[in-house]
Amino acid sequence: MSQLLDVLRFELAFRRRHPPLWIFTGLCFAFAFLTVAIPDGMNPFGGVGVVALNSPVALMRMLLVYCLLLGLVITTAFVSASVNRDADYGIQGLFFASPLRKLPYLLGRFSGSMLAAWFMISGLAVGALLASLMPWHDPERLVSLSLTPYAYALVVFLFPNLLLIGAISFSVATLTRRTMFSYVALLGLLVLYVVSGNYIDNLDNDFLAAISEPFGIRAYGHSVRYWTPAEKNTIAAPFSAEILANRAIWIAISLAILGLTLARYRMSIEGRRPRTAKAKAKLAAAAELSAPPRAYAGAGSTLPTLTPRYDLRAQLAALRFQTRFEVRSLVRSAPFVVIALFGIGNVLGATSGFIQRGGTTTLPVTHLMLSVIEGGMSVFMLLVLVFYAGELIHRERKYKLDQLYDTLPTPNWVPLVAKLVAMVVAMILLLLMAMLTTISFQLDAGYTRLELGLYLCDIFLFQLQVWAVLCVAAVAAQVIVNHRFLGYTVMVLIFVAQAALPALDFEHHLYNFASFPGVTYSDMNAYGHFVTGQIAFSIYWGAVAGLLVMIAELFWVRGTDNPFKRRLAMARARLTRGRVAAIVALSLVWLGSGAFIYYNTNVLNTYLPSDAAEQRQVRYETEYKQYEGLAQPRVVGVEVEVDLYPYARRVEVRGTLQIVNESDEAIETLHVPSADPEVEIALLDIPGATLEHQDEVLGYRIYHLATPMQPGDQLEVKYDYRKHPRGFGNSANDNMLVANGTFFNSYAYMPYFGYARQYEIEDPTKRREYGLPERLRMPKIDDQLARQNTYLSQDSDWISFAATVSTAPDQIAVAPGYLKKEWLEDGRRYFRYEMDAPILNFWSVLSARYQVRRAEWTPPEGSANTEPVAIEIFYHDAHDTNVDKMIEAIELSLDYFTVEFSPYQHRQVRILEFPQYSTFAQSFPNTIPYSESIGFIADASDPEDIDYVFYVTSHEVAHQWWAHQVIGADVQGATLMSESLAQYSSLMVMKRHYGPNKMPKFLEYELDRYLRARGGERIEELPLLLVENQQYIHYNKGSLVFYALEEYIGEDALNQALSDYIAEVGFQEPPFTVSYELYEHLKRATPDKYRYLLEDMFEKITLHDNRTLEAEVSARDDGKFELRLKLQVRKLYADGKGVETEAEQLDDWIEVGAFVDDEPIYLELHRFSSAELDEDDTIELTLTLDERPTEVGIDPRHLLIDRQPDDNRKTIAD
User: Fold this and answer.
1) Which of 229, 509, 645, 1085 is the most buried (most CB within 10 A)?
2) Chain centroid to CA 943: how far?
3) Residue 704, domain member (yes or no)
4) Within 10 Å of residue 288's Cβ, how many Cβ atoms?
5) CA dist., res. 1031 & res. 397, Å (int)
6) Quick check: 274 and 283 in contact, CB under 8 A?
7) What pLDDT shows up at residue 806?
8) How far is CA 702 from CA 63, 85, 678, 684, 692, in A?
């Protein structure tokens, strides 16, 4: 024990005296402190909305991520160095020759390093704790101080994680005697982390994913995935089964690795005895090299005369030789090979996880595979980039060859360029290996449209440029600081800055190192107009990289006298005229390209960082909110002419608006805000009006009418709005006007009237920060003024509509309405569309080089329609895979909706593909724009998958009823009628088409999404009846509620209620319908015994905790089976923050089921009341069954919202 303590004390003293301990501790402290201290720093970790920034969950996520990022580097550096330090200093033999035993020697080294690593990582907790106490924080964003979450994080997660990292590092470094292999081994942990998510992290085996991941991140995430904001703010130390299992498994693995290392280590300089002939031969060769030199056999003879050359040709020859040597030594090194293999495995894992969307597999199209390469290989490329920069630059000194190399007559640029080329070649090889991996995946999946040109273009023009700049930075950092680990620290700081600067609202790519606007590839539009900006930034950062190379060459280390002052003086001495000229030339390229970029991003376009955008919102509200509620005219007719120049990215929109004063007071002023201040208003002609106020920045105009509009008066407004984006912006967000696939809606290029509250800041924290008053997310449901508008528009409802659209001659332009005329004129293609009935003032224009597939729907028996409906799918020529499925979904949806609800109001349905810059589908009158990324590249061939294409198509068709016939007022609950009912409608079509047994999987995903999203609520969760455009409520909860209601009261009863509701409020004029009116129809359709269910589902936030505790089956003499169940039945109510209270009384009908291989043999509703339950909320049931079940349970189909649905069912043992 005394030897162990002596070694431990020595190790701790060594660590205490050396700067890295304090540098890395300070780094950990700074990371955590700045993250918690700066505004919005905790947003990525869940500290948003009503979840406090110092909540236990937000803190835990931050500490886990930083422990992973920093702990890998710090622990590996300390532990592996402690083992190999004696050998590096040449004193290992002294220890081995001393009486020091193996166990104290190794454990002392390991324990000292681990204590140092634990001390450093504790800086994270200390930094976060102190940052939460800073006086500038908003008190409402904090919970009261408690040390429990910090202690829990350290003891349960951070310390064990470092123990695992340390054990692996210690084992590999001890047995191989090489530090680099320790980092390579730890990549296996990262790969395991990714694989545990990509291969097995789904709803069917998420527990396995949680316990198989080594760092506990998924175990913790799985445990808190359904927590509400209240729970995230209060529960400090969860000990779920996943967490306990995960920690026990990986602590045991850590100790096992440590024990194995102690057993196999030999206290000898040569390490482990060679066991193979190859190993013995290598050892003999090494001994031969280390033997004393023998006399030269030709001693006394005359040596040949050599004439050295030092010209450029000789230097280039030296460069070729050293480059070849550097490349071979790098790519043939065992660590690089292992890293590459890990990277390939990670890319394969990423492919399986990346191509899933909503339970449906996506076709492995090439642009998705390029995203897989970029994401799946990046960690491994970063490791090669950072660590091999240190290895290459310091290799000669590491092997004591630096003084020999420094005497060679080669200029400094030769080894520098050779090492840089080797780094870039390594990046290329990794990218190409990833490319071959994804190509193999594509072929294995049966996908043969490989697009090799796209692969090579993206890899060499867009991905490689970033890595090349980073390679230069990594090498330059190592040369300039002349210290391996300080060079690593510089690169870490660069990566931190890349992430932190945008979070601090420094968003321009001009000063965020190696930052680019990015390009988004679309099969429809290729790289589009984004290439110009990317090339400009490539030149800019290329010049910066060139300057870094020049600086590194000036500071290149030769000799042993290397204090920075001497190196600085040497750098000045090396500034020859040629070098100065090169630096000046590169500086001119850098400044010139920077000026060009600035002109494009800040002069031709508007650069608006997030904080500046918020300040505009603040000024908009403070200056113009006084006009909210002011009577304004309403648009009743739109005649529009759209001239699209897609290849020039230009649009001119001329139109005529018919406006009428439908209020009961005179209107003296017209308020005309602009949705996009970048739009040029060439004409806005309002008869009898003069421009009284114009805000050039916000685009807000006020016109004064010479003669006020009296109630009922009409005016005809003519306008000419234009947009012609010039140059390129700082981001790739300007994607409405594109060469192939233009898509914009009516809000983009037409005037509207009145103050628009949707442009106000909504986040309560931001509002307090700017001194703004509290704001309603949506007007209250009883707000009569708000009921005068739909939630889609503030100045119009039903309008007459006609559009003439011109475009390029090889494109088809489409707008809502029926095509009345198509013609060519002056080399342009024209289309005239007219609507034959009023529509909402919510329309779109699209233009692309479309292929068109047509079909016709014939009304079935019982349909409210009598005439056929034309179906058209406008699609990119390479995206025809799912076109027939979309047509089928449209036909089946029309079958169902026209029979069950009301007639379809149009004579056609059109789906139009648009580029993947946005990932949604949206329903306009008889026209449905549909992103290429969510339906056209889906692989719906697997019958076990959720048919996402069918579901989305049916959902959007359903909006022709739920939004375009029934549209809610601009108050709480509006999206219940549009989105929730569209969800229900599409579910019924799916159920009828695929059968009821396919629905539980979809509902399982909906339940999971709803429960997860509750914890991210930014203001407060509301009951479904009062939903405020909260997607997780109106989509996910809406699906669950209406599907359950249909199962309880019957499909016919529910559909009849909805049909009656449409008949009552369809196409109504103001005041518009509210959710209470729908609720009344549902009440009338619901039997009295289920009325409580409506209250639970619509008026309250209700959660269930139903469990099958015990299940036994016994055979009876008559051939039947007796099933005895012990069930737990609980119901809880939650408030908007997630605080739960148990229901005082229970009198509920809940399904009990028995199944054989997922097929129900018994499925009946049972009544459970508080009077029948035991004190622990349990009850026993006995059922008689005709067959022996394999699985039984309460609420087995998850009709009720249960936070722990996994325990509802129980498998019956054979």
Assistant:
1) 229
2) 28
3) no
4) 8
5) 60
6) yes
7) 98
8) 52, 76, 18, 12, 6
Q: Which long-range contacts (CB under 8 A, 24 or more apart) does 457-462 make?
A: 458/367, 458/370, 458/521, 459/370, 459/373, 459/431, 459/432, 459/435, 460/428, 462/519, 462/534
φ, ψ dihedrals at 701, nearest 5°: -120, 145
Domain range for 923: 850-960
Rounded Cα distance, 830 and 804, in Å: 7
Q: Are residues 954 and 980 in the same domain?
A: no
CB proximity list for 1108: less than 8 A, separation 6 or greater: 1125, 1126, 1127, 1192, 1193, 1194, 1207, 1208, 1209, 1210
The answer to whether 1146 touches 1102, Cβ cutoff 8 Å, is: no
What are the beta bridge partners of residue 1150?
1166
By C-alpha distance, which of 645, 976, 962 is closest to 827? 645
Give the residue, 676 or 532, on which the prediction is more confident: 532
For 843, other C-beta atoms within 10 Å of its C-beta total 23
Q: Helices in 520-641 by DSSP H: which ranges? A: 531-554, 564-573, 577-598, 610-624
310-324 mean pLDDT: 87
Q: How far apart are CA 1020 and CA 700, in angstroms?
A: 32
**Which residue do the tokens 């008053």 mark?**
773
pTM of the model: 0.90
CB-side neighbour CA atoms (13 Å) of 1014: 31
Helix 464-481 and helix 484-503, axial crossing angle in degrees, nearest 10: 130
490 and 427 in a single domain? The answer is yes
Q: Which of 659, 848, 880 is nearest to 742 (CA)?
A: 848
How many of the other CB atoms lie within 10 Å of CB of 554? 20
Domain final residue pick, 1036, 1069, 1099: 1099
| Strand-strand pairing, 1140-1142 and 1131-1134 | antiparallel
Query: Which two three-digit tokens encode residue 1158?
Result: 């997922």
Residues 996 and 939 in one domain: no
Q: Is the dihedral of CA 789, 792, 795, 801 positive or negative?
A: negative
Hey, what are 954's tokens?
């049916």
Per-position b or e across 1172-1188, b if 16+ CB within 10 A of its CB: ebeeebebeeebebeeb
Question: What letters, b where the CB count within 10 A reaches 16 and e where it falls short, cover 875-910?
Answer: bbeebebbbebbbbbbbbbbbbbbbbbbbbbbebbb
For residue range 1067-1120, what is the model confidence (pLDDT) as tens digits?
999 999 999 999 999 999 999 999 999 999 999 999 999 999 999 999 998 989
Query: How many independent structural domains does the chain possess?
Result: 5
Distance CA 422, CA 428 (A): 10
Model confidence band, residue 268 (pLDDT cutoffs 50, 70, 90): low
Pair (1086, 1109) in one structural domain: no
Same domain flag for 441 and 564: yes
Residue of 972, 1085, 1036, 988 lying closest to 1201 (CA atoms): 1036
> In sequence order, what are the residues at sequence separation of 6 or more whose Cβ sits closer than 8 angstroms to the Cβ of residue 24?
70, 74, 120
> Which among 948, 934, 872 is positioned nearest to 908, based on CA atoms?
872
